[in-house]
Amino acid sequence: MIAKQFLITGIIMAVIAMCLSILFRIQLAWPDKSFPLLETFLGKWAEGGRIKPDFYLALVTIHGTIMVFFVLTAGLSGTFSNLLIPLQLGARDMASPFLNMLSYWFFFSACVIMMSSFFIQTGPASAGWTIYPPLSALPTAISGSGLGMTLWLISMVLFVASSLMGGINYVSTILNMRTKGMDLWKMPLTIWAFFLTAVLGILSFPVLVAGVVLLIFDRSFGTSFYLSDIVMGTQVLPNEGGSPILWQHLFWFLGHPEVYIVIMPAMGLSSEIMSVNARKPIFGYHAMIYSLIGITILSFIVWGHHMFVTGMNPLLGGVFMITTLIIAVPSAVKTFNWLATLWRGNIRFTPAMLFAIGLVSFFISGGLTGIFLGNASLDINLHDTYFVVAHFHLVMGSAAIFGMLAGVYHYFPKMFGRLMSNKLGYLHFWITFACAYLVFFPLHFLGLDGVPRRYYAFTEFEFMQKWVTVNVLVTWSAIVAALAQVAFLFNFFYSIFKGKVSSQNPWEANTLEWTTPVERLHGNWPGEIPTVYRWPYDYSKPGAEQDFIPQTVPFSQTMSSNMPHDFEGNAESERIQKEWEALEATKETKLD
């Protein structure tokens, strides 16, 4: 139930964020035009039918905050961790259902508080989703620095509390509540991804809270952690001794692990979905796990690449550049293993499979541009341009969203007992996939030309005016992509009530969640929890009767398809296999 709550809330927040993005895309495409409808809905924030500059910055700020934290963190991890961890591990429930409930309601409260800032006189927070001082530290700097910023900070404290409660619960469940036979090397890659994501969150989110508390002190109690030598108009402020760079260090110490908190669950889901639908074992299972561990460790020592232009010591910049480029290695391992899994597979192109393949596409195209930004000398020119916007919207935004959508299509039968429409799923995928590239790929060229991000209009500078037509194309593509989500929303909610009733294991998968009844019940299994005997990716095994062998099938029942490495270290299985091989050899001798 809690997984459904996270999912529905995440979908609602995603729709809100999508609407905000359409509003500021309209402003960028047609900055000189008036749209009376905007004034009707937005009131004073769009007087005369044109969005005001300070509200434009608020739209960008809240859009980024919602997508990064509320949709791609809580919506993605909260949904699938709560759904799959107990089911794939063979547990009756999470370690602490009460903590689970608190986690959701803290998240929901954070969403409500964030959205309430649209209904106050000064409007929502306006400092970009990274909330850099001094705009965020001075309550009177601009309209969005007032109460809206305070609500943003309160909302984020609640969100972090939710994430920590969830993360502790996930780690406890994975380490302590696995069923008989389920050792770490028999866990699906989804569980490994959720586990390491939870570890990342537990270690990095408290740093953001520390930064937020210091920011609240600067705003409300006259301290100067982030402020020094500030002049507002003709007034010299008394703040001394602080530095806005301190906020950047604290924020990005969370901010870069946050990239992997967002993408790793999507990677785990896509790995599972690709193996199931390619009817092949995942290529390099152990390498995939070690690459996740490598990403988890390295993500804590690369945050400085966001700060190459802050006056960083060149030696330190070189260290961050090297660690940033090294983290591409485990990412490349995962990419090549996905491609090897697909190679010569008996692929079923379900909507879930298409979205999983889409993740690989975006991860490759967005990851390649990350190599440019990881190079300090190149980043100095590309920093804070649309090149950065294009990069992270592909590698983090689009890739993670596609992984999340793949999970929704694949696990919809497990959540609701029904199937979504494949036809609407295909329509949703192809339009969204094409439009995502039409929206974000052209932005690379704007960035290479030095066009800064977050600017209110492209008509203020002569060199930007040649990109006006491109902006119109990008905006129309974004509008079409938004319309494609209507097909998904209809498919999702219609299928909950009217979709075709699902069988117990509609995808013929091996993992434990497909051994539970279609009708969800308390405790997940009606009787004894199944025992696990094998890894989760025994697909298309030579000699097997079917092209899948569930984890609950003992090796003694699949003698003709067993291989020596299947049961290494299991003395009983080795003994049974040797006896069977001896019996087969005796039969062959008699025939001769």
From TrEMBL:
Localization in the cell: Membrane
Keywords: Electron transport, Heme, Iron, Membrane, Metal-binding, Respiratory chain, Transmembrane, Transmembrane helix, Transport
TM annotation in the entry: 7-28, 55-77, 98-120, 149-171, 191-217, 250-270, 282-303, 315-340, 352-374, 386-412, 424-447, 467-494
InterPro entries found in the cross-reference section: Cyt_c_oxase-like_su1_dom (IPR023616), Cyt_c_oxase-like_su1_sf (IPR036927), Cyt_C_Oxase_1 (IPR000883), Cyt_c_Oxase_su1_BS (IPR023615)
Superkingdom of source: Bacteria
UniProt GO MF annotations: cytochrome-c oxidase activity; heme binding
Pfam family, one: COX1
Cellular component terms (Gene Ontology): membrane
Biological processes annotated in GO: aerobic respiration; electron transport coupled proton transport; respiratory electron transport chain
Membrane topology classification: Multi-pass membrane protein
Ranges for domain Cytochrome oxidase subunit I profile: 1-557
Keyword rRNA-binding tagged: no
Coiled-coil region list: none
Gene3D superfamilies for this protein: Cytochrome c oxidase-like, subunit I domain
Main location: membrane
Family: Belongs to the heme-copper respiratory oxidase family.
Entry protein name: Cytochrome c oxidase subunit I
Organism of derivation: Pedobacter psychroterrae
